[in-house]
Specification:
The protein has 304 residues and is of the alpha/beta class. Helix content is 40%, strand content 23%. It contains eleven helices and 15 strands. The strands form four sheets. Strands 7, 8, 9, 12, 13 and 14 form a six-stranded mixed beta sheet that branches. A hairpin with a 4-residue loop joins strand 1 and strand 2. Helix 1 packs across helix 2 and helix 1 crosses helix 4.
């Protein structure tokens, strides 16, 4: 306890800018603050603060030690908050954002089960394929499928997102299965298309990711359309396992070129802050992560 008090006093003195200000905040004499700092420096064997009657200045050792102390105190506060929240229960309204297709298949069907476990929570699910402004639009948690860029937002990975090339058995019976990446040139590839240009597909080849230009007689800016065309036997499509897993399990689609599957854009829960996160958000994120981690989830879930 003495060591912890010395550390917290050191951080408080730096934050307040003086021993007297830190003493007033704690309701004790400045001399007591000074004794704690002396004891800390004596124990560590280094000078942390240059103290005069007018100002304080961190030494180089003090500045480095301060960063570690601030991190430790923040983690301790977060741990205490988490323990306290586990003994409480989730309440309040939860604003959720998710991509339209993913939200329809993998958030909306799960929400009733979550709310039945947390009866004092209500929820609104907004589905949109645009990147929402979490803070500006009052979103508690957004589900995103992407390689996340650095930002001030906090993200928690919910699941891997494997992407596979699929075709209907009827199509593969007529045209055969591609065995190499070069074989795709002989197939009708149904790709995301905008302004007449089809987007390439990403594969793993000789240890590197490569983007391969594909061609087909139909393209669309809507992934669901490509999915439906593939089911109808019109060509091959490059889709996420979250979209086609249940149809692969049912034999309605088959995967090809699995040896060249590249890492996908994984599935994340994104929110504005980690500290003091409301229990309803923590509970919902944990619920999704636990559900998605079930071994057969992606192959048995999806369109009903």
């Amino acid at each position: 306890m003495g060591q912890f008090r010395q550390i917290s006093t050191f951080v408080e003195v730096v934050a307040k800018g003086s021993l007297s200000a830190a003493a007033r905040a704690e309701g004790i004499a400045p001399a007591m603050i000074g004794r704690r700092l002396d004891a800390l420096e004596s124990r560590l064997g280094v000078k942390l603060l240059q103290r005069t009657t007018r100002k304080l200045a961190l030494t180089d050792e003090g500045a480095a030690f301060l960063e570690d102390c601030q991190r430790i105190l923040a983690e301790l506060e977060e741990a205490e908050t988490a323990v306290a929240e586990r003994s409480a229960h989730a309440t309040g309204h939860l604003m959720i954002s998710a991509p339209a297709g993913f939200g329809r298949q993998h958030v909306a069907p799960l929400l009733p089960s979550f709310l039945s476990e947390h009866r004092d929570v209500t929820a609104t699910l907004n589905m949109s394929d645009r990147v929402v402004d979490i803070v500006g639009e009052g979103i508690d948690v957004a589900i995103r499928i992407a390689s996340l860029a650095d930002s001030n937002l906090v993200s928690v990975k919910l699941a891997d997102n494997e992407r596979v090339v699929v075709g209907a058995p009827s199509y593969l019976k007529r045209h055969g299965e591609p065995k190499t990446l070069a074989d795709l040139a002989k197939h009708n590839c149904l790709a995301i298309s905008s302004e007449g240009s089809q987007r390439g597909w990403t594969f793993r080849d000789n240890g590197k990711n490569v983007v391969l230009k594909v061609n087909g007689n139909m393209g669309s800016n809507d992934g669901q359309v490509l999915h439906d065309w593939a089911l109808a036997g019109k060509g091959l499509a490059w889709r996420s396992m979250w979209e086609v897993g249940s149809e692969i399990e049912a034999g309605k689609l088959q995967t090809v070129l699995d040896q060249h599957a590249a890492p996908g854009n994984d599935i994340y829960a994104v929110f504005a802050q980690r500290r003091h996160l409301p229990l309803r958000i923590r509970a919902f994120v944990d619920f999704l992560r636990h559900t998605y981690a079930q071994a057969d989830y992606w192959r048995r879930s999806g369109k009903q």
